[in-house]
Structure formats: C-alpha cells, structure tokens
C-alpha cells in the first residue's frame, strides 16, 4: 500500500574545502562546473517539489546565484553532508528531504524517484532510505572510495564498509553491493541524526549512514541499476568525461 509522501526537497551539499580535492564543486567537467551538472541532473526528477544547493563557502554561493541555482548557506561546522541537510531542514519546511551528493555529476534522476517510491510504501518505518547496485569489477570492489553494503533478507542495512564485504571464508563468491550515494529522510530522522556526534563505526569507516545503524535505527535499501560516478579525486573527472562521451551526453 502506498501513500502520498507530501512535499519533497532535493538538497545538494557542496563543500569547497575537500581534503582530497579542494574546490571540487566548481571543478569543470567537459567545460561545465560539477555542481551545475549535478543540479541539472537533480532537476530532471519528476517527483521533487524543489531542489537547492547547501554550502558553507561564499564562492559556491556566488556561482549558484550567477547560474540561478537556489542555494543556502550552512555552517562550516557540519560533520557530514547529512548534517548539512539537517541545517537546511531547520530553514525550509518539507515533509521529506533527499540528499544528493554534490560530487555525483551524472546521478540518474530516476534514483531520486525510486527513493520517493520506496518511502511511499514504508513511510516512517525506517530512519533513512538508500539504494544499492551489484558490482563485479575487481577495481570497484577493492576501492576504498566505493562503499559496499551488507543487507539482510528484507533489504535492511546490516553494515556498510569501504572494504570488500562480505568476506567469504568458505570460498564462496560474494555478491558485492555498492551503495548509491542518495539518501531520503524525514525531518524527525534528520533531527535524530544531527543530535549525535559521529558514532564509532561512522568514524572508523567515514560512512555517515552508519550513525543510524550505531544508534540501533534501521535503513531500508532497494536494488537499482542507475549510473553513478563519484568524483573523489581530480583523476575521477576523466572517468566522468569518458562516461559522458560514451553516452553522447557532453
């Protein structure tokens, strides 16, 4: 049974001072700044009411104003993108907030709609909603920039790791699931998240959704086949440009 999810805001956290790639949101991909590409992808979702960039840097704010992209300032003390989305939820009142990472310039808008459909079925039964896809490429499986997720038989999160989990002592070949970095939360879930400092497993893995798991709260997952290429380092821009060329999307 489905229900109306109410009003929905897509939030794109964008931080300038990244330790691995300073100025990343404004880095150009085939001549177009990454944050603009991400915003244009998000706006293609058929189910969002609005979309906004959330930043703590005046350079990103100025760029967004130049491009007529809605943007709001958040504090520099945000520990994660989800903490930044929480600050937006304190300024703008919606029923549901979708966190789309600012370094996902080719994120498929269908993934946003999929999160909303999932929420329409399960509502407040879960603290957060997320997606995964199966991966078989050894480089991706062993990459510490790609988050792998273990779910139970109900597609609820058991753990997330930068390591290639699950490990098979029995010699079986695991099915590895890559987390897609797009999350859905209610205002209450964001308030619960932001009320805590980083939890122990969140600190170990540097995976923000583990904060919910450490607190004993559940996250609902669903399989997807959408495209997702995170830009973590300058070399990742070439991956995105190759993808755009292959898909004839330049």
UniProtKB/TrEMBL annotation:
One of its GO terms (molecular function) is nucleotidyltransferase activity. Coiled coil: none annotated. Keywords: Lipopolysaccharide biosynthesis, Nucleotidyltransferase, Transferase. InterPro entries: Cytidylyl_trans, KdsB, Nucleotide-diphossugar_trans. Pfam families: CTP_transf_3. SUPFAM superfamilies: Nucleotide-diphospho-sugar transferases (SSF53448). NCBIfam families: PRK05450.1-5. This is 3-deoxy-manno-octulosonate cytidylyltransferase. It comes from Gilvimarinus japonicus.
């Amino acid at each position: 049974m489905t229900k109306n999810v109410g009003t929905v805001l897509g939030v794109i956290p964008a931080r300038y001072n990244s330790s691995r790639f300073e100025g990343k949101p404004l880095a150009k991909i085939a001549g177009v700044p990454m944050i603009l590409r991400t915003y244009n992808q998000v706006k293609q979702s058929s189910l969002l009411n609005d979309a906004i960039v959330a930043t703590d840097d005046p350079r990103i704010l100025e760029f967004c104003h130049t491009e007529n992209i809605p943007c709001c300032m958040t504090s520099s003390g945000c520990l994660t993108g989800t903490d930044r989305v929480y600050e937006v939820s304190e300024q703008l009142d919606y029923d549901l907030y979708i966190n789309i990472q600012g370094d996902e310039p080719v994120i498929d808008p269908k993934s946003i709609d999929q999160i909303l459909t999932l929420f329409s079925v399960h509502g407040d039964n879960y603290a957060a909603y997320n997606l995964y896809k199966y991966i078989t490429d050894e480089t991706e499986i062993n990459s510490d920039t790609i988050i792998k997720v273990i779910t139970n038989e109900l597609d609820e999160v058991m753990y997330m790791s930068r390591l290639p989990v699950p490990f098979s002592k029995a010699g079986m070949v695991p099915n590895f699931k890559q987390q897609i970095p797009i999350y859905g939360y209610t205002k209450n879930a964001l308030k619960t998240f932001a009320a805590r400092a980083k939890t122990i497993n969140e600190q170990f893995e540097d995976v923000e959704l583990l904060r919910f798991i450490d607190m004993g709260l559940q996250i609902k997952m669903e399989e997807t086949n959408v495209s997702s290429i995170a830009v973590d380092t300058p070399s990742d821009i070439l991956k995105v440009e190759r993808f755009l060329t292959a898909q004839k999307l330049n």
